[in-house]
Amino acid sequence: MSNQEQNKFLDISVQFVKGIGEKRAQALNNAGIFTIRDLLQYYPRRYLDRSNITVIRDLKMNDLVTVVGTVQACGVQRGRKARFVLMLSDNTGRLNCVWFNQIPYWEKKFKPGQIVAVSGKIGYFGGFQMVHPEFDILSDDEEVSMANFYNTGQIIPIYSSSEALSRVGLDSRGFRRILNHLVKNYLSRIDETLPKRILSQMKLLPLQEALRNIHFPGNLTLLKEARRRLKFEEFFLLEFLLAYRKKKIIEQEQGIAFPDIGDRVYQLAEKLPFKLTPAQRKVLQEIWSDMKKPHPMYRLIQGDVGSGKTIIALIAMLLAVENGYQAALMAPTEILAEQHYLTFKKWLAELDIHVELLVGAQKVAEREEILKNIVSGKCHIVIGTHALIQEHVKFANLGLIVIDEQHRFGVAQRADLKQKGANPDVLVMTATPIPRTLSLTLYGDLDISVIDELPEGRKPIITSWRYSDKRKEIYKFVKSHIDAGAQAYIVFPLVEESEKLDLKAATESYEVLQNTIFKGNSMALLHGRMKNDEKEAVMAAFKDGEIQILVSTTVIEVGVDVPNASIMVIENAERFGLTQLHQLRGRVGRGEKQSYCILIAKKPASEEALTRLTTMASTNDGFKIAEVDLQLRGPGEFLGTRQHGLPEFKIANPLKDGKLLQDARKIAFACMENENDLNFLLQAVKKISFYQQFKHNLSLMRIG
Ligand code: ADP
Ligand code: MG
After folding, report:
1. Cα angle vertex 620, ends 618, 625, to 5°?
2. Gyration radius from the chain CA atoms
3. Which of 108, 194, 424, 624 is buried deepest, with most CB atoms within 10 A?
């Protein structure tokens, strides 16, 4: 069959499949199943076989089990409360299943002689029973019989259903029938999606065999192989698209080449008060090798808090300037933009580089002047917040953009900044370490550089958590360090929904602390509602050591760098997410002093909060923390809706199938060099609507 016809066949509406009429088609559509392809990809939720069912003789109280038996009798029992009872027998004993509601529905559903699988918790009421079990009627299915089940080791697929689907006969059994029909009659019409070479290299089942065995496994080994093949395919086609997009960028997109290192880069290197770490040097090398090329750079720098990303950005930007271009850095908060501005000014002072700051809160005249300098090209480097992407900001020749704490920005904002230049190079930085397997799917088309070590001489931060009844001792401890010359942050939570209350709590606590334990110490309060110059003044005074204790809301969460500050107290720590706690803690441990982070939690803290607190106390490793956070929240939440561009995998799981994902990626990228594979795969990808959908997400995700 030609591709064209095959395409048509898989795209046939479910309505035309034998056994599915208009009503069922409607219910399927509502559940997101439109075509034959969707049906074939409606993989079983689980399977029944001898190995995962329990015989009635072996039941124990409170066990969670699946039992398969024949309906001996069923009917309504009237009593204090009417119930529907289903009596099952499996030759080793009897089990009652009980439903208390929708009795007429159950009366219609069950009849003696049926073979039924039930799953649930074993209770006791004059004998073992299950209340409101999950069930699946197995009989009337072709070839399912108790004898088969026990003697031949038959494996039966169980499909998810819903009330709406069940109502039109599409319970698990209904799906089984339809898929049985499809697999029996149409499988031979489905073309292979992967090149033969890859099938044999990875020892994968052909697609037809995989589909047959995922729905009706010949045996457990074949089932495993089927799953592996289908997972691989999902990963592979995704990675193929990522690789292909990357190839296109490299081959076709015209960008800017920055061929010269320039004297001032060397001058800066000499001036630096520290030596770059090997990891920083490696990353710079990677950036430099991108920047030399006449194609746009798309590079992500991952580096834990405090690993020294700013200086990397600075050097890259200086490189752009040395080649006659402007560079811009966008940061998520004004405090951070301001701080970067001061750092850049300090390091670039003697190099005759013109640096400007552009944030929302500047006076009109000042802003006019800055904008003029940017558009005329007088200004070489601009640091700013999202004020940078406003329409009236125009550059003379923007060659490089850097986005700090990129996870704080939306895709559109990153793209908007890129539009300010003619295909400038793009560098995005993040301290949220995304586990590698996830970054392969999320950022698979970006080049990734990792700063995997901290500067020398940093001592691991000592972290502990206490309930608030220990607050007094904690602050005594803080006081003793302050009096010995340390500086501290005390952080209060502030969330949008309860902003007013939170701010009030922080302000009141600030006053109490100032008038009691920290009487005589210099303190200041910092929050987002303060005027810009007030914020600036406070930050500057804290940086200069004039302020010993900074009481703050989460405005200092990202990026703030005051190396002498070595103590962090976080109040109401149970309210913070894990990644957020880690970011906050990253404000200390930036110098040579031993640093401490103390988390104060209100009693009682939830189970999940306890996990967060103990995780924080047990490790400083951002990657480990991210893994736990990911497990607690799941990928969608963890990544946030803003940049959630992940495809919905039907069967693969990037967290669990990491090895397969990496294999898929390697092979997909290698295919770019092979004309035959490439053409074959481009044909294959076109046919799969799931990837069409993802292609759309890709262009949203991309940095411009
Ligand atoms: P982050 O990666 O969290 O953005 P920063 O760039 O703010 O980290 O750097 C943290 C601190 O470490 C800064 O004070 C910076 O000057 C300093 N720093 C950066 N690189 C080095 C290095 N190689 N050796 C010593 N200190 C460094
Ligand atoms: Mg930073």
Report:
1. 80
2. 31
3. 424
Does the Cβ of 431 fall within 6 Å of ligand 1?
A: yes
Predicted pLDDT at 81? 87
Spatial distance between the Cα atoms of 159 and 31, rounded to a whole number of angstroms: 13
Here the tokens at position 155 are 């494996």
Q: Which of 278-287, 317-326, 451-460 has the lowest mean pLDDT?
A: 451-460
How distant, in Å, are the alpha carbons of 275, 307, 316, 455, 621 from that of 278? 9, 11, 17, 9, 19
Nearest to 503 by CA among 511, 495, 513: 495
Are residues 492 and 553 in contact, defined by beta-carbon separation less than 8 angstroms? yes
E strand or H helix at 399: strand 398-403
CA distance 14 to 11: 9
Residue type, position 655, single letter: L
* pLDDT tens, position by position, 19-78: 898 999 999 999 999 999 889 999 999 998 888 899 999 999 999 999 999 999 999 998
Report the candidate in 315, 362, 323 with the shortest Cα–Cα distance to residue 343.
Answer: 315
Among protein residues, the one with the nearest Cα to ligand 1's atom 4 is: 309
- Please give the DSSP secondary-structure letter assigned to residue 277: P
Q: Is the Cβ–Cβ distance between 510 and 525 less than 8 Å?
A: yes
Decide if 39 contacts 17 (C-beta within 8 A).
yes
Whether 342 lines ligand 1, by a CB cut-off of 6 Å, is no
For 23-159, strand residue ranges (E) read: 46-48, 64-77, 83-89, 94-99, 115-121, 123-124, 128-131, 134-137, 156-158
Give the separation between CA 704 and CA 700, rounded to whole angstroms: 8
The alpha carbon of 404 and the centre of ligand 2 are apart by a number of angstroms equal to 7
Tokens standing for residue 310: 């700013």
Model pLDDT, residue 384: 96
Taking the C-alpha atoms of residue 409 and residue 558, their distance in angstroms, rounded to an integer, is 13
Task: Give the confidence band of 644 by pLDDT, cuts at 50, 70, 90.
Answer: very low
Q: Is the CB of 307 under 6 A from ligand 1?
A: yes
- Coil, helix or strand at residue 497: helix
Enter the pTM of the model.
0.74
**Top-confidence residue, 415 or 662:** 662
Tell which residue, 163, 183, 169, 172, has the closest CA to residue 31. 163
Give the pLDDT confidence score for residue 139 in this predicted structure. Answer: 78
Report the pLDDT averaged over residues 89-100.
93
